[in-house]
Each structure stands twice: as C-alpha cells, then as structure tokens.
Write a structure and sequence with these properties.
Chain lengths: 168, 419
C-alpha cells in the first residue's frame, strides 16, 4: 500500500517534470503527455510453499484512470529478483463450455475507463505469475511493472496475503 | 496529549456518550430515533419530539457509519467510550514464528485494522460489504508473556507487566486463559465485530494458533438518560470508579516510564467471571444490595443517593453496624490509593443455558492499567480475601497482555518492540 502509493507518486511526479520541461522549452507539445493510471490496494495471493504444477499466483489491485480517454492494461513484467523467468500475463476468469470457471488471457487487455477505475480481484481480473522459482510468504512483497496501452508504465509493490488460512 | 478522553466519533451528529451529554439537542434527536426505551421512563419528557421514518433512517445511518480514528498516540479501543459489542481473541504463536514474521504479522494486522476502522474491507476481504458499517469499530492489539519469551524479547518486558498470582477464588480453565497475542475488537454493531474479528483472526492465523475467544455485550450508549454506568447480568451498576479525564488516564492507564516501546501503552487483564444465578436468585434485594454495597436502582453507594457519590466506609447504623459491610464489594474494591486505580471496560457474556437451566453467563472483566503489580493485584487480592460477591461469582479465565502505544500512518502497532 505504502510502496504502491509512492510508486504512483513517482509516476505522477515524472509526468510533472516532463510537463515542466516542455513548458521551459517554450513549445507546446503536439499531443498531450500520456497519463499514467494509478494503482492502489495492490496485493498478491501468497504462495507459502512451491508445489508441483502449482507454482503460480495472481496480483490484484484497483487501477484508476484520471484521464479523458480509456487506457488499457496490456502487460506486466516481474521486477522481483529470482521470482520467475516466465512472462507474466493479464488474465480473467470465465465459465467454459463445460460450465467450469477457468482463467484465460484477456483479449486486448483490461480496459480502465476514462475517469473511471477497474478492480482486479480473486475470481476476476488478475495479473498472472507463472512458474514461480521461490515461495511468496504471507507479508512479503513482490515488485512488478505494469504496462499500459498509451506506452506508460507503473512500478507497483504487492504485499502477499492469504485468503484461506484454515486447515482442512 | 492529542486525544480527548472520550474520542469523538468522526461522523457529525453521532457523538460519544460524553459528547452526547454535552448536547441537549442530541438528546432529543436520539429520543426521536425511537431508542428511548433503553432508558425507561426517564426520557419520556423528550418523547414529545416526534419521530419520523426519515429521521430514524438518518440517525441509524449515522450510528452505523461512525468511525474512531485508528492512528494516534494511543491505540484506539481503550479510551474509546465502551461500544455495545466486543470480542477478545487470544493466540499462541506458532513455534516456527520468527521475530521477522511477528513483525510481518503486526504490519498486516495494522493494515487490516486501519482499513476496517474506516469502514473499508481488508485487502483479502472476501465479504467486503460487511466492512461498510464501522459503527465505532476499534481493533486493539497486545502481547502476552509468551510473545516476549518465544521471540527472545525478555529484556523488553515492562517491570509492571507480570502474570497474576493465583487467587484462592480462581477456578481457571485453560480454554479461557493465557495467550501470546490478544486482539480486541469493539463496535456498536455485532455483525461488524464478527466480520472484523474474522478478518483479523485469519491474518493472525498464518503465524499463530487460536487460544481462546470471548465475545460480550453492553447496553448501547445512545438513548441513555444519564451518565449511569452499565449493568452486569446480576443487574448491578458496575464500573463506576473509572478514569474519565485525560489526566486520570495519564496517571492510571498510559505508561510514562519503562521500556521506550511501551510508553503510551498499557497493560490489559482479561478475566472471565462465571455467575451463579441459582445462588443469586435466592437473595432478596436487601441482601443483593448488602453484598455489593450499592443500591440496585441507580447504583448509589448505600451511604449516598447518586451513583457517583463517594462511598462513606465509616458510616454506621445506630446499632454500630457499618452501612457498607466489611465484606461488601464496594468496600473491598474501593481504594483511596491513587496507585491502585485502573480502567474497567467489561463486557457481559451469555452462552446459552446450562443443563441446570441457568444461563451460562457472566462477565468478561477487562481492566487496563500501567502496572499490574501495583495497581491491579492489591485490589484483586482484597476481593479474593473477602468479598461476599465471591459467593456467586467464579473466575474461570485469566490472561494478561502488554499493549503497545498507537502508531502513525506508515507505521505499525508494536513497531517500537519489533522494529
Ligand atoms: Cu490467471
């Protein structure tokens, strides 16, 4: 939370610096500087131990788009050292023909509507980690970079939480 | 000192009991809300103020959305005027839990508690809609003796934080005793308490096993005609002698010396007191009042007329017998020694019927003080030695915890100890 906020602030201040630089240059940009969405409540489902074929997990958050145009979350890159070698994917959970809930890549990415927000949560949209090389204990943090359709990126920090801790 | 003793709720129109008393206008609006029934006939004078469904809905919404700030100099839920519902949960640290994991646990619990206090769900909340009525929710955390010894923090135990001696009256059961971590949740809405308790206990469960959980209730704070203290299930007015001013809290509750991490923290004693209703029912009102040393109708000492009159322990009847008997609870608990005063924040419990037909019920006695040895033990010893109320009450659970101070955004509860 704290770290994701500071990542957001960093993103915003970079935009501010860029705008200031343009103003100093005295020439108006042909197109407005692209807006970076903000991320809050970023968390990842903890993976306390690696199990065969189960070394995967999802990242959840709320993305907000303050701009006047839709922005799409198109990709993500892990920046946590040694966590995975496999590219990350943008996923959704849908019902397949057999009536089972399955996850799949989101065609075109996740749209964050203009002046709106979208929430990634268990059972819905998520950013997918595959082939984890080490566990993600509850309370630990992972970092990743989100990539958007307007070529902006956002570094986020996700705290690891567990959603079912009961035995049996 | 940044907080007033009675933390005002942040929602306009919904105030603590103290604020409530300060504002006659609020008195009548609470009556308008149709809750005057709690105060019996005492408020009928105000009942002329007509109630409308709109007003009722507005007031209800205000009560349910009222919040108590989580962050601050002190932990919330201690100075906070007693909520109507509460749960104390204790946990035993897993043998494998390390200091750094304990730090993680407190960081996550802090994050959960801060969100819940604002009426927001926790990050992994599967029932986010249950978080939307905070109703003065507070979450408070403390560490039992085992927390220090298991994590190698023995050197940080405050001098006045000690286990209680065993008292002759105790019949302690392990399922209500001990614990390395305590989480106390309070709110004016029982669903809110249950949801917060589940969220926080689930977070703790990664690092610790449940030891015990005790839930209880009090009379709601609104719609009350007077500043009268709540009653226990024997009908007694209980908890009259409580710190009220910031100065009293400073001298009785908040630690001002000892290890740095403990400054502005406090100690908590939780005792589960089973009530013997079979025996109590055999007493007439005079006997009940003699045992307590207070009258039943308003809790005034038998030497006075109002609840907050100071008991006159020297007063005698014409025949020379003391008005407040030697064995009366009030006499045994009363102290003029300022060093033996502390905060009581009790909850009543009621867990169904026993095979005998009487309720399995009693009191979750929760007391907060700077120094258990100096403030609590002498009083409890006097009660154990000679208090007629012992005839109808039995301590069946006991636990002690050291509570860290509050924290600021970005920090976490216990950071001074674990950081
Ligand atoms: Cu997936």
């Amino acid at each position: 939370m704290k770290n994701s906020t500071s990542a957001t602030k960093r993103g915003l201040s970079l935009v501010a610096v860029a705008i200031a630089a343009l103003a100093l240059g005295g020439c108006a940009p042909a197109t407005p500087e692209p807006v970076t969405p903000t991320a809050s409540d970023v968390w990842i489902k903890a993976v306390p131990e690696l199990m065969d074929g189960m070394a995967m997990t999802g990242v959840f958050m709320t993305l907000e788009n303050p701009s006047d145009e839709d922005i799409v979350l198109v990709g993500a890159t892990n920046t946590t050292e040694g966590l995975t070698e496999t590219p990350m994917e943008i996923h959704e959970v849908v019902k397949n023909d057999a009536g089972e809930m399955v996850m799949q890549m989101v065609e075109g990415g996740i749209v964050i509507p203009a002046k709106g927000s979208v929430t990634l949560k268990p059972g819905g949209y998520h950013v997918m980690y595959w082939d984890l090389l080490k566990p993600i204990p509850v309370g630990s943090h992972v970092t990743l970079t989100l990539e958007f359709s307007n070529d902006t990126t956002l570094d986020v920090d996700a705290v690891a939480r567990d959603i079912s801790t009961y035995a049996g | 000192m940044t907080q007033t003793p009675a933390e005002e709720s942040e929602t306009p129109g919904v105030v603590s009991r103290r604020g409530f008393l300060a504002s006659a206008g609020v008195v009548s609006s609470y009556v308008a809300a149709g809750v005057a029934g709690f105060a019996g006939g005492a408020l009928t004078v105000n009942a002329a103020q007509a109630s409308t469904p709109e007003k009722e809905a507005q007031l209800r919404a205000g009560q349910q959305s009222a919040t108590i700030p989580f962050y601050g100099e002190y932990q919330a839920g201690i100075m906070t005027p007693l909520q109507s519902y509460g749960t104390y949960m204790a946990f035993t640290l897993n043998p494998s839990t390390t200091l750094s994991q304990a730090r993680s646990m407190m960081q996550l619990l802090t994050d959960d508690a801060a969100r819940l206090g604002k009426g927001k769900p926790t990050l992994p909340d599967g029932e986010p809609y249950l978080a939307t009525e905070p109703a003065r929710l507070t979450s408070t955390f403390g560490f039992g003796p085992g927390f220090f010894t298991k994590l190698g923090l023995q050197g940080s135990i405050p001098a006045g934080f000690t286990e209680l001696p065993s008292f002759s009256i105790d019949k302690l059961q392990p399922e209500f005793s001990g614990g390395d971590l305590v989480i106390h949740v309070g709110a004016d809405n029982p669903l809110t308490v249950a949801h917060a308790a589940r969220q926080l206990s689930r977070t703790a469960h990664t690092f610790a096993e449940p030891a015990w959980s005790q839930s209880g209730f009090n009379r709601p704070q609104y719609g009350v005609a007077s500043d009268q203290t709540g009653r226990n299930l024997f009908g007694q007015v209980d908890g009259t002698v409580n710190p009220r001013s910031a100065k009293e809290f400073d001298s009785q509750v908040w630690a001002t010396s000892g290890p740095q991490w403990f400054r502005d923290g406090t100690c908590l004693v939780v005792r589960r007191i089973q009530m013997d209703f079979a025996g109590w029912d055999k007493l007439d009102d005079t006997k009940k009042e003699t045992a307590m040393g207070r009258n039943l109708h308003n809790g005034a000492p038998l030497t006075g007329t109002k609840e907050f009159d100071t008991p006159d322990l020297k007063a005698t009847y014409e025949n020379g017998m003391p008005v407040i008997a030697s064995f009366a609870h009030v006499r045994r608990a009363k102290t003029d020694n300022p060093a033996e005063k502390f905060l009581r924040r009790p909850l009543n419990y009621e867990d169904g019927l026993l095979p005998s037909g009487e309720p399995n019920a009693g009191l979750i006695f929760a007391a907060y003080m700077t120094d258990i040895q100096k403030q609590f033990v002498p009083v409890q010893q006097r009660l154990a030695d000679l208090d007629l109320m012992n005839t109808w009450t039995t301590p069946i659970g006991s636990a002690v915890f050291a509570l860290p101070p509050g924290c600021q955004p970005g920090g976490y509860i216990g950071e001074g100890l674990l950081g």
